[in-house]
Amino acid sequence: MQSNRHQTGGGGGAPTARSAPCVYLDYNATTPVDPAVLEAMLPFLGRNFGNAGSVHTPGQLARAAVDAARDSVAALIGAAPNEIVFTSGGTESDNLAIFGTVARSTRPRKHVITTAIEHHAILHACEELSRQGIEVTVVPVRKGPDGQGIVDPEEVRRAICPETVLITVMHANNELGTIQPIEEIARMAADAGVCFHCDAVQSAGKVQLDVGKLGVDLLSVSAHKFCGPKGIGALYVRAGRQISPRAWGGHAERDRRAGTENVPGIVGIGKAAELARNLLAEDSARIRSLRDRLETTLLERVPHVRLNGDRNRRVPNTSNVSFRGAGGEALLIALDLQGLACSTGAACSSGSTEPSHVLLAAGLSHDDARSSLRFSLGRPSTAADVDRAIEIIPSVVERIRALSPREQEATAIPAR
Amino acid sequence: MPTLDQLQTTASATANALETGAATANTIAVAMSGGVDSSTVAAILHERGQSIVGLTMQLWNQRRLPELQGDGPRQHRCCSLEDVYDARRVAEHLSIPFYVVNFERAFEQTVVRPFVQDYLAGLTPIPCTRCNNDVKFEQLLATARQIGAIKIATGHYARVRHNAETKRYELLRAVDDTKDQTYFLFGLTQDQLARAEFPLGEMTKQEVRGMARRLAVPVAEKPESQEICFVPSGGYVRFIEGYLKEQGTAGSCDDGGMKLGESGEIVATSGEVLGRHNGLHNYTVGQRSGLGIAVGRPIYVVALNREENRLIVGDDAELRSSVCEVRNINWIPFEAPDAAIHAHVRIRNRHQPAEAEIIALTPTTARVTFTEPQRAITPGQAAVFYAGEQVLGGGWIK
Known about the structure:
By secondary structure, chain A is of the alpha/beta class. Chain A has two domains: 2-33 and 280-402, Aspartate Aminotransferase, domain 1 (Alpha-Beta Complex), CATH 3.90.1150; 35-275, Type I PLP-dependent aspartate aminotransferase-like (Major domain) (Aspartate Aminotransferase, domain 2). Chain A has helices at 2-7, 35-45, 57-77, 90-104, 120-131, 153-159, 182-191, 211-214, 263-301, 328-337, 357-361, 366-370, 383-402, and strands at residues 23-24, 84-87, 111-115, 135-139, 164-168, 195-199, 218-222, 233-237, 305-308, 318-323, 340-341, 346-347, 353-354, 372-376. Chain A has a seven-stranded mixed β-sheet with strand order 2-8-7-6-5-3-4, sandwiched between helices. Chain A has a three-stranded antiparallel β-sheet with strand order 9-10-14. In chain A, helix 2 runs antiparallel to helix 9, helix 4 packs parallel to helix 5 and helix 10 packs across helix 13. The longest helix of chain A has 39 residues, at 263-301. In chain B, helix 4 (81-94) links the parallel strand 2 and strand 3. Chain B is α/β, with parallel strands linked by helices. Chain B is built from nine helices and 17 strands. Chain B folds into three domains: 4-155 and 198-214, Rossmann fold; 261-314, SH3 type barrels (Roll); 319-397, Beta Barrel (Elongation Factor Tu (Ef-tu), domain 3). Residues 13-24 and 249-256 of chain B have low confidence and may be disordered. In chain B, 28% of the residues lie in helices and 27% in strands. In chain B, helix 3 runs parallel beside helix 4 (81-94) and helix 5 (104-120) packs antiparallel against helix 6 (127-146). At the A-B interface, helix 10 and strand 13 of A face helix 1, strand 2, helix 4, strand 3 and helix 5 of B.
């Protein structure tokens, strides 16, 4: 759907012969709202405006919609409805899980375990824990070709100590797509009596998720990664697990997350979860074959290319590729100007990019990390998108390599 | 504000221009700092119907050296988030594709470290020239070409002209002499000049402001910045001390040249010891105040003797000299001359170019002999040679 809209971007009339269709391959950043989701939401931005906390009929209508959405999100991850807390998205879910668990613990000394490849919503929250005097262990990931970008559960086991109150490990990594051995780590956490949180923002809607099978206590999801709207997410809180709220106010979400419910957003995540659940098998098989064709063709047609991250244990939509000798930033811009949207590294506050902490943690050199692109596909991706990408990328890589600036003197700059 | 569809139209128009052969592949990248000059350049080119892409360089992380920041963020300094925001606003206003590119590593290697090292070596460096030579017209130009642009336009006040006879590119002073920036551009090579576009060279600052207002450029009323972009208002000495401390605590500073200068003697030109200085990096030639000695007459820094860690001071007359040597010269309208050249030589920004004879010693070094002695010829500053409006070349004062 995305590409169609761009195709007619030539001024409202028929596409001109030169109009370049925009190929969107950045679905890990965000996805378009599915038309069915939008349709479900619209009444709640219009006539069904009631406050889900109100006693009267308009309120009850809103409440009913929120409850139905809760059922649907619960079904997507194999949870019970009362285990779902709606939040503003992945970042809030992660923060609520971390600070809500740590604040709940009455131990005099507290220790938290996480990994080097987490999203900043986890890592920066853990840095804040450190500033508050809580000990944090950041476990490395495997760097070799086998299991690259995957946590060794033994490393987690070694980090557990009597003070450990929380282990938080992501399910699928956003940049590499690698899937972490959550079941194994969750078992270790359970054996040690430690709360286990999993950031599943990048796996919900891409692979089967079952909180029971995974054995997690807390799990974060975000709607806009699976064709839902932005600004709505959920935290699964296993029945019986207590977390302290991070905001105080009314009694919404069973006193775990105060604030008037975002009814249109909640309806949106509910519909998106329903679609994801119904379409998962079909979507993932189709997307995997598109992704695999993109990868194999790039490997064939572009010299000095390497795939990053374990090739087998990863989500079906993500491909992370280093184009040696070509800067990722120039690649990203040149491809965008040719109508292909993908991503590289992590955006910093100014909007420029920094080398990705995930790729560095997975053992890539600075140069390889700086020359990497992430292609991520989604439900709207088509074979034509992949054809176009395959057509554009090799020549752009070639031009950028040919026009690389002269090497700067290699003055060692200490890490900061 | 443009709509998303308009933005997409612009982006795809640019993409088309980039994609289809030589006839339309004339996109120019505009180096946008968020200031009024480069913003107006973007607006002017856009109005002409030129296909452009806006690029803003992220050069320095303002979160570094937090102890040097005053209360609250300082406005209007390069790489501040406010400036990037302003540049983006201008690009959105024009509906042009816009990107922020990260050159922090190159900037630190080619501008910031040499700046610190120069001060520690008793020189008074000009980081803006290095930035032009090694970042803006090297790294940024390379990125511009990589993304399909043929040239780079900046907000510099200067002019470039191609001489059909000599087949060389020439650098000319700006029409507005009070804004002329050729002093900072003398290092541009023929390749760089060939790909440089300075649309403001023919305009006065007043005209630029007027144009900015007429084209409703969002930053039309923004005040100008005059400082070295990465040095906070606390001054360069505090920056150098802060940077060395940061590098030191980061744990790998073994190249010797990066040690803060120690206290030493202040000596008169007669040899008399007058007092003590607190590290040569605190001083620059021609400086009068801050010496902490009183001898009953105005006294100035005449030279920095790094070998003996001595600060040489004297009176105004001793500050004047007629001869200096210049190294790493870049000649512009011709290769190194074999005969003596008579030209006007500028030895610092805002210095009135003074008549001099230039004798090339090697293709990249020369001896400059001024007709009248010049005050405070300062090692580390540039000497730029002018023949009328034309820049013949320039190099670094030894």
